[in-house]
UniProtKB/TrEMBL annotation:
This is Crossover junction endonuclease MUS81. Its EC number is 3.1.22.-. Keywords: Calcium, Cell cycle, Cell division, DNA damage, DNA recombination, DNA repair, DNA-binding, Endonuclease, Hydrolase, Magnesium, Meiosis, Metal-binding, Mitosis, Nuclease, Nucleus, Repeat. It is found in: Nucleus. PANTHER family: CLASS II CROSSOVER JUNCTION ENDONUCLEASE MUS81, CROSSOVER JUNCTION ENDONUCLEASE MUS81. It comes from Acorus gramineus. The keyword Cell cycle applies. Interacts with EME1 to form a DNA structure-specific endonuclease with substrate preference for branched DNA structures with a 5'-end at the branch nick. Typical substrates include 3'-flap structures, D-loops, replication forks and nicked Holliday junctions. May be required in mitosis for the processing of stalled or collapsed replication fork intermediates. May be required in meiosis for the repair of meiosis-specific double strand breaks subsequent to single-end invasion (SEI).
Length: 546
């Protein structure tokens, strides 16, 4: 975070100093990630720039850049803050004064998925969601065992179908409305959470066993010694708030990920990333040049003229003084090569980027192409997978579907999801990523010699492996079938394939446990830590048809 700033309102001086000192304590204790530092910087800057006296925690919550996670840092700062905390849902401890138990949907039910998806979709930018948008987002989330779409056609009762045929998971919305968690208004209908609905959604998130990003959870855990958040439930709440603020944010620090790469945020992965071959005493910059390779099918504009693409490539070269080439890549939209200066050999560095503008992502989510594309990226052999989303999701008619896809891609599947505002921003991102990757290998090239045995593949080896992935095998078909099952992500599908490469082999394993349904349902979960209870049960139902 930058040096201390002048405070516009003198009465806020102590508040700004309090946050500054908190940040210093965290940095001095265990260090602080760039992502967390950026969050604190935004809050600190806006507190300093506020011209109004911030008297209560409620006033603070209305300051731009201050979310629920940041509010927890100020616990104990404001006098008589308990009422304000409860009103904002920060304390969340002393509920139920009337003695009645709040209705909570059963985990992995359609009601559960609808409630959480609606909460995520309305946490920051928009106060409501429309029906189709909510259905698409809930379907993409994988939170429910069942689909929220009509199971046997879309006709209304009496139109050549019985009420039983017409029934679908969407009917659960009536229960949420009746229980006072959701309100419906306008025509066409808008769906909004009540205050009680928001509290119920947060409680569902706390109680859920959803997989979380190790990187983000570590970021939250760094603050536990300062904020006093000790319980796993509180960590889940803080994590959910941090992720929601980040995904829904309409403005992004263009180069935060690039800077974190340079500063060693992937330090824990340094023995995981592959390195090009090296000799004794060699420095990376003396042996290799880093080359950005862009796919020749990459469309930098809606125009099909190649001259525009050439201008973009030339722009990257001139702005960032880096080498850029265009080739026909077997997978992804961009990779980075380390080219040996003397031996004329090329090695693929451990980074790959897939670029999607919001319209492309919306279409691929609806026809499930994005699952197939991500599966191929996960199997290409490169470690650092970057998913670059270009444009503002809030401008799309399927905004929540796009944000949910980004959420699951990063949190559940381990991709590094980055956002750019448009073409010019994407050009800059490619340039800064190239510089950062170059700096990373300069820094870690010598460090890796003691413990890293992974060697970058040659370009020809990389192409051959990706071409082999194009050949559709029985296992590939099985993987695509698995990914249509609720709660089965690409990572889960690959974990199943490691155990049982074909549908037949999995069915045989189930047959050995015939008669013990519970053992069959939990078989995959017990064999792999990557497979959740819900996914294990749903896969069993797919294969065994029970």
């Amino acid at each position: 975070m930058e040096n201390r700033r002048p405070v516009s309102c003198p009465e806020n001086e102590s508040l700004a100093s309090y946050l500054w000192n908190k940040r210093q304590e965290m940095a001095d204790a265990d260090g602080i990630s760039d992502r967390l530092d950026m969050t604190l910087h935004k809050a600190y800057r806006n507190i300093c720039e506020s011209k109004s006296h911030i008297r209560t925690i409620k006033d603070l919550s209305q300051t731009k850049g201050v979310g629920k996670w940041t509010l927890r840092l100020f616990k104990g700062f404001f006098p008589n803050e308990s009422e304000g905390e409860q009103a904002l849902g920060v304390a969340g401890k002393e509920k139920g004064a009337k003695g009645t138990k709040r209705y909570l949907p059963q985990k992995n039910s359609v009601s559960y998925a609808l409630l959480i998806t609606l909460y995520r979709g309305t946490s920051n930018s928009c106060s409501f969601m429309r029906k189709q948008e909510l259905i698409d987002a809930t379907e993409a989330s994988g939170l429910s065992k069942s689909s929220d779409r009509p199971e046997k056609g879309s006709g209304k009762p009496g139109q050549f179908s019985s009420p039983r045929d017409w029934y679908s998971g969407w009917s659960c919305m009536k229960t949420l409305i009746a229980k006072g968690l959701v309100v419906k208004s306008s025509n066409p209908a808008k769906y909004m959470l009540t205050e009680e609905g928001k509290e119920a959604a947060v409680e569902c998130l706390v109680r859920s066993g959803l997989a979380v990003s190790t990187e983000l959870l570590t970021t939250v855990e760094e603050c536990t010694s300062i904020t006093g958040m000790r319980s796993q439930a509180e960590l889940h709440v803080a994590h959910a708030a941090l992720v929601t603020e980040e995904i829904n944010s309409s403005s992004v620090d263009d180069y935060s990920t690039c800077k974190s790469l340079e500063s060693g945020e992937v330090e824990g992965q340094e023995n995981c990333l592959a390195m090009p071959p090296y000799g004794f005493g060699q420095k990376f910059e003396d042996v290799y040049d880093v080359i950005l390779i862009l796919d020749d099918r990459e469309q930098f504009a809606r125009s099909s003229h190649g001259s525009r693409s050439k201008k973009v490539v030339d722009s990257i070269r001139s702005q960032f003084k880096i080498q850029v080439e265009v080739r026909h890549l077997p997978i992804g939209d961009g990779i980075w090569l380390a080219r040996h200066r003397n031996l004329n050999k090329e090695y693929v560095l451990d980074f790959i980027v897939e670029r999607k503008n919001v319209d492309d992502l919306r279409m691929s989510v609806r026809d499930h192409r994005y699952k197939d594309q991500k599966l191929r990226l996960l199997r290409c052999g490169l470690h650092k997978l970057i998913y670059l989303v270009e444009g503002d999701p809030n401008s799309s008619d399927a905004a929540e579907s796009i944000k949910t896809a980004c959420f699951t891609t990063e949190i559940l599947e381990g991709f590094d999801v980055q956002r750019t505002t448009g073409l010019s921003d994407t050009v800059k991102r490619y340039g800064f990523l190239t510089q950062s990757i170059n700096q990373y290998y300069k820094t870690h090239f010598t460090k890796s010699k003691d413990g890293n045995n992974k060697v970058c593949p040659s370009y020809d080896e990389f192409v051959k492996k990706c071409q082999d992935l194009e050949k559709m095998t029985v296992s590939d078909v099985f993987a695509l079938q698995l990914m249509q099952v609720p709660q089965v992500t690409e990572e889960v599908a690959l974990a199943v394939l490691d155990l049982y490469p074909t549908l037949l082999s999995l069915a045989r394993a189930y047959s050995l446990l015939e008669g013990d349904t519970r053992a069959q349902e939990e078989m995959l979960k017990n064999q792999s830590k990557s497979i959740s209870v819900g996914a294990s049960r749903n896969i069993f139902k797919l294969v065994w048809g029970s």
